[in-house]
Every structure is written in C-alpha cells, then in structure tokens.
Amino acid sequence: MTFKLAAVLATQFVFIGLPGASAAETGAPAPVVRVGSTEKVCQLTGKTDWETRQPTAGRTLAVDPRLAGDLPEDQRRGIFIFGVPRYRAGVPYLAEAPSETLGNPATWRFFTGRAPDGQPKWVPHEEWVRGAAVPDARRPSEWKPPGEPEIFVPATNAGHCIGEFSITWNRPLGMWLMLYNCPREISARIAPAPWGPWSTPTEILGPGDGVACRLVMTPEGCGNRRDFWPNKHTNGKFVAGGFYAPYVLNRYTGAAAGNGPGRRSTIYWLVSSWNPYEVSVMRTTLQSDAF
User: Fold this and answer.
1) CB-based contact 184:242 (threshold 8 Å)
2) Which of 72, 133, 248, 250 counts the most CB atoms within 10 A of its CB?
3) Torsion on CA atoms 101, 104, 105, 106, rounded to nearest 10
C-alpha cells in the first residue's frame, strides 16, 4: 500500500517576522530524546559524517519514537537518526541507535533499503563505514554507501535538494510527517514508518501563495519594507526572499474536522525566510488518503 497527502486544505500566516533570527541557526524547536531516565535536548547540527571521511555540511536530526505511545513495536526499539549527507543536495539517510549509547555511532545500525516485504534492512557501523566495497577489499577512495540507503524510493534527481528538515509522528494522520525546503518552496511527505515508503512531495508553501511583500522580499522591492541585504543588490534588483528550515511545533498538532474519507490534521510550524531574515509561524491543515 502506498500513501499520499491528498490535499493541503489551508496554509495561513499566524505570526510573521521575528527579525534577525533563523530557525536553522538556533536549531529550534529542538527535539527531545530520552537517555536512560533523563530527557535530553537533541539539537540540529551543521556538520555530519554520514559519508565517511568526506567533509559535509548536512543536517542531522534525532527522533525518539518511544515518546509516541501509538507506534508499532518495531518502531519503538531505539532512537532514529536522520541525516542529509550533502547540504541541499541530498536525500536523508536513516540510522537507529540504542538510547543508552546515542552518542557513540559505533553502536548504531544503518538503513540500507527495504526488503520485498517492506521491512527495513540494517547493517552495523563497521559495514556502513566500509561502504559498498566487498567485505575483504580495501575501501575505495570515493566512499559509497552500502545498499540503497536513501529513504525516498524511487530515487530521482529532483529529490536531491534537502537541507533543513523536520520529521515528527503525526498522531491524527497516523503517519510520520516530513517537512523540508526544496529549493525555494516548502514540501511535505508522509510515511507509515521512518523507512517508508514515503509519499511523493506535496507543496505546502511556495511563491504562488501570496507571499510576495508579505512574507518575502521581491527583486523589485517592497516599498518601505526593510531590506536585510542592501549591499548585495545585482543590476538594481533586491535579493529575493526564499523559504527554509520548516520545523513542526508538534505539541500543537491536532486533528481537524472535515467531511469525507481520509484523515485530517492541523500543524503549526516555523519557517525562516532569507529576505527579510526572519522566522514566522505558520498553520497548515493536511488531509491524507491511502490507496
């Protein structure tokens, strides 16, 4: 069975313009994971080493599924770590870590694709680091991951653009929800499990949503609205605003009323804009269908 977001019923601006701030830089809202008897904040980071020995500037996010009480048992064994290996040029990889050793990647196991029955395939850290080389061979100079670790299937070049992202368990939809920016719009996908299958993307915020001079700057300017990049004009044009860093405020997620088939949920989420350099709060109502 595959899944999709059947509709974006509404996206509204709740609060526009916390100036001089970027959700990507502050790492807010930071997810919480439980390590032993202690709950710890797990910040987003600007550097990951998913593709071993190679410099990266991706994003990594840890999600503790044990804090969601209605998940299947096979999704509540440890802490899920999602990581984009190449910033705004990749698709997330997935790993699972024991909560007691979250800080030690050598204890993680790494996702390398789904079996024909849809179940995830995992390899230990040693095999992940070795990469696609045969077991007793020397690791090639250009490391390649084993198996098919990208969580979007089928893989397409159009999907290799994720930078900042958030993944949360949406209880009203009964689905995992991913928000991400790719390239100047915000898209959403859903999946019944962290390893998929993930739906095709649905745009929830883009240039056609009445955002010009309300949420973002245009190349022609916006009257007296503050320009955050006055020294970067090209040929008399302003630096256009774009969207990034969509982070769900999951404590405010709730069911939404409606008629007909499918499930509905209203989410509140943060989004950063480049010009103006601000963080805004958004509200979106989603509807999902299975077919």
Assistant:
1) yes
2) 248
3) -90
